[in-house]
Design goal:
The chain is mainly β. The N terminus is likely disordered. It has a single domain, classed as Kelch-type beta propeller (Neuraminidase, 6 Propeller), CATH 2.120.10. The longest helix is centred in the N-terminal third of the chain and has 29 residues. The chain has one helix and 31 strands.
């Protein structure tokens, strides 16, 4: 009798365990879980990314890639550009972002999140763009120069060269300067209507130009750095690097130049240059200073940030595409 009662008790206990186990598996499969994580720039819920509407940096790249950041380049969010064309350059002016790229691609946005395709009037590749004197200016393949007052309607200008133009800047007063293949430097005092060819003193390709701290600074292949006070006469500087230099910016009283193999150079006077470590070997294509931060973009989705241009932190871009250029509003 006791033995039979004992067996009955064991049987009931086993049923209870099986029942509890079945309830747990059902809850795991159908129960509600909260998988929401939040960062400064994005909110992710169940693998769906919701991008912040506030934008402080925009980066561009191949296949219409556009990334934005709202936290000084720390976190990044992918945006829909509406194009599959490669984007090479981007600027900000008159409360408008303008991006340029392959086959005359031209995009505009007032917020960095929603983009509109514009008719550029050319099928040439557009490599860079800047804003100054109430004028957007884009430069590109075989001497192409376009200007616009609003980023929407564009005029084709006669540059006087068939060389590819890779960089363009404005001095803040009224002078534009563009640089390109084989040491090409052109200047215009009238918003691109007329251009004068300048002697650069080099046959190396020139990739980037900036005017800051009362000086023009140009960077190019084989470590080329040129400086000028008025863009008419140019002086070659010793960079200390033989790597190709692709981008240049200025901020926090410091010039920062970037290039191949993770090259990073800094200067406080545009004359003497120091090699600083970026910590990577990828080619770096674009660099900008804004919101009290330097941001660098480059090969295979590389993004680096720095407060001083010397110590750099790698950030996750969420893409393996090469990032060509970056701008701050």
């Amino acid at each position: 009798m006791k033995k039979g009662l004992f067996i009955l008790l064991i049987f009931c206990f086993s049923l209870s365990i099986i029942s509890c186990s079945d309830d747990k598996e059902e809850y795991s499969a159908t129960g509600t879980t909260d998988d929401t994580t939040t960062t400064d720039d994005t909110t992710t819920t169940d693998d769906t990314t919701i991008c912040d509407s506030t934008v402080s940096f925009v980066a561009v790249g191949p296949d219409g890639t556009i990334l934005t950041s709202s936290d000084n380049g720390i976190s990044w969010c992918s945006r829909t550009s509406g194009t599959s064309q490669s984007l090479f350059g981007i600027t900000y002016g008159s409360s408008t972002f303008v991006a340029v790229g392959a086959n005359g691609t031209m995009l505009t946005s007032t917020d960095g999140t929603s983009w509109t395709s514009r008719t550029s009037g050319t099928s040439k590749y557009l490599y860079e763009i800047t804003y100054g004197s109430s004028t957007f200016m884009a430069v590109g393949q075989t001497g192409t120069i376009l200007t616009s007052s609003d980023g929407t309607s564009w005029d084709n200008r006669t540059s006087g060269t068939t060389k590819n133009l890779k960089g363009v800047t404005h001095d803040g007063v009224g002078l534009f300067a563009t640089v390109g293949e084989s040491g090409t430097i052109l200047t215009s005092p009238d918003n691109g209507s007329t251009w004068t060819s300048r002697t650069s003193g080099t046959s190396n390709d020139l990739n980037g130009v900036i005017n800051r701290n009362n000086a023009f600074v140009v960077v190019g292949y084989s470590g080329t750095i040129l400086t000028s006070s008025g863009a008419a006469t140019w002086t070659s500087r010793t960079s200390g690097s033989s790597n190709n230099l692709t981008g240049i910016t200025y901020g926090n009283s410091t010039f920062v130049a970037v290039g191949a193999n993770g090259t990073m150079l800094t200067s406080t006077d545009n004359t003497s240059w120091t090699t600083t470590g970026s910590g990577i070997s990828n080619t770096l294509w674009g660099v900008i200073y804004g919101k009290s931060a330097f941001v660098v973009v480059g090969q295979t989705g590389t993004i680096l940030t720095s407060s001083d241009g010397i110590s750099w932190t790698s950030r996750s871009s969420g893409t393996s595409s090469h990032l060509e250029d970056v701008i701050s509003n």
